[in-house]
């Protein structure tokens, strides 16, 4: 399916105004052609009239002999016919009979006059000469316009681009925002047509920020308030398991303790998620610091992982606590839901964690960063690990990328976090 290319408002307005400018000029040219044709006809007709009058005066005063050595200027043609129909004087070919006054015959503009003595005087010029005069006059106007048209289009493009600068600035600001950045838009001056949209976006983001803040506060408070009773209940279950003499009661106490531990881990993950999604997204850039030791400490909690670290200090502009949380959740996700080999690679500005396992469906892959999304795994995870990673990545200005199969392999799963430099 062919994808329609994105439209540009600057390009569309420039082309629209430019085509309109050319269309108006062509219409003016057509009108000018018609008006100029009429004006040229009037000028040439007046010249024919003056020539006819002079020839008539000369012919009347000097007779045919006086006209013999006088020729009309340029491409003019003339013929004097006596009353008996005999041609007395002729220059060029003219139609034999033409009506009195002006007429167009055989590509000529002919003026026919009846002389006082009964003779007939015809004076004519070629219509092609008139059309040539119109063409040359219009061409003298067309050439400068054609040469200046690219400059006019460029000036129009610059003008449109300058007028749309506030629109482009607002578009860039919205596009550059992270998904969790709900701060109000900048208060730059905008045209009155854009100000309502700017204000509406600010109000929408404000309401969304309040709703998300309330949701985070509820999750954080609920998880925090649950930790104490969960810990107390877990202690009682473990005590009951240790003191139980009935095997069935001991198994039930053991199952209860396991479920309470799971609920405790879930409460801890909810607290982590609330911290990850709280605060300003993509805030001030952290000072570069060596992250190798933090990654080594986290990887040491998972003995089955294969860790690849640079030999020299590896500096990243990231908060160390956030980096440790990201690394722990990525490795824990690989251990719980994947199979060996599990590799952790720190190189350049990226942290990559890969594991073996079945290839994931692309639709499912795109949903793994949602809360409580475990995919097809039956492992006892919370379904919050990748959501926590994405939350911290957004706050640090980093990008999380998921891939399945793992690059260079036919199976498995890879999660890559690219930190800002």
List the SSEs and their pairings.
Elements: H1 9-67, E1 77-81, E2 87-91, E3 101-105, E4 108-114, E5 120-126, H2 127-163, H3 165-176, H4 195-243, H5 247-277, E6 289-290, H6 292-299, E7 305-308, E8 315-316, H7 320-337, E9 339-347, E10 350-356, H8 362-365, H9 385-395, E11 399-403, E12 413-418
Parallel strand pairs: 7-9
Antiparallel strand pairs: 1-2, 1-5, 3-4, 4-5, 6-8, 9-10, 10-12, 11-12
Task: Walk me through what this model shows.
There is one protein chain. By secondary structure, the protein is an alpha+beta fold. It folds into three domains: 9-160, Beta-Lactamase; 195-277, Helix Hairpins, CATH 1.10.287; 289-418, Heat Shock Protein 90, CATH 3.30.565.10. It is 54% helix and 15% strand. The strands form three sheets. Strands 2-1-5-4-3 form a five-stranded antiparallel beta sheet. A five-stranded mixed beta sheet has the order 7-9-10-12-11. The protein has a two-stranded antiparallel ribbon with strand order 6-8. Helix 4 (195-243) runs antiparallel to helix 5. The protein is rod-shaped. It starts with 8 loop residues before the first helix and ends with a strand.
């Amino acid at each position: 399916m062919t994808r329609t290319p994105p439209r540009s408002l600057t390009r569309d307005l420039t082309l629209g105004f430019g085509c309109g400018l050319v269309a108006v000029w062509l219409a003016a040219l057509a009108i000018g052609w018609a008006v100029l044709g009429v004006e040229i006809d009037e000028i040439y007709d007046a010249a024919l009239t003056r020539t006819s009058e002079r020839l008539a005066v000369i012919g009347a005063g000097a007779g045919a002999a006086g006209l013999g050595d006088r020729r009309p200027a340029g491409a003019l043609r003339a013929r004097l016919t006596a009353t008996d129909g005999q041609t007395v004087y002729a220059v060029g070919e003219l139609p034999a009979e033409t009506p009195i006054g002006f007429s167009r015959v055989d590509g000529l503009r002919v003026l026919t006059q009846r002389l006082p003595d009964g003779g007939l005087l015809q004076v004519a010029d070629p219509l092609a000469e008139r059309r040539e005069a119109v063409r040359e006059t219009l061409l003298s106007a067309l050439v400068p316009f054609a040469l200046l048209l690219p400059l006019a289009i460029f000036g129009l493009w610059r003008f449109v681009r300058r007028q749309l600068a506030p629109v482009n600035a607002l578009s860039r600001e919205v596009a550059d925002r992270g998904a969790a950045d709900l701060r109000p838009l900048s208060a730059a001056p905008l045209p009155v047509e854009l100000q309502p949209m700017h204000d509406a976006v600010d109000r929408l983001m404000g309401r969304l920020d309040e709703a998300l803040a309330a949701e985070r506060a509820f999750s954080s408070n609920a998880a925090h308030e649950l930790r104490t009773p969960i810990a107390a209940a877990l202690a009682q279950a473990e005590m009951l398991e240790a003191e139980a003499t009935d095997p069935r009661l001991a198994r039930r106490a053991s199952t209860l303790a396991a479920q309470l531990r799971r609920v405790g881990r879930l409460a801890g993950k909810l607290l982590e998620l609330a911290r990850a999604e709280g605060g300003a997204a993509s805030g001030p850039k952290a000072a570069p610091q060596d992250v190798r030791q933090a990654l080594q400490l986290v990887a040491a909690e998972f003995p089955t992982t294969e860790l690849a670290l640079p030999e020299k200090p590896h500096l990243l502009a990231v908060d160390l606590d956030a980096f440790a949380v990201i690394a722990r959740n990525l490795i824990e996700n690989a251990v719980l839901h994947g199979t060996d080999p599990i590799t952790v690679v720190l190189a350049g500005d990226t942290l990559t964690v890969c594991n073996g396992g079945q290839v994931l469906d692309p639709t499912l892959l795109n949903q793994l960063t949602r809360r409580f999304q475990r995919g097809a795994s039956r492992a006892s995870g919370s379904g919050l690990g990748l959501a926590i990673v994405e939350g911290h990545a957004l706050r640090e200005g980093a990008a999380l990328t998921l891939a399945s199969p793992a690059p260079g392999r036919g199976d498995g799963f890879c999660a890559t976090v690219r930190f800002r430099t």
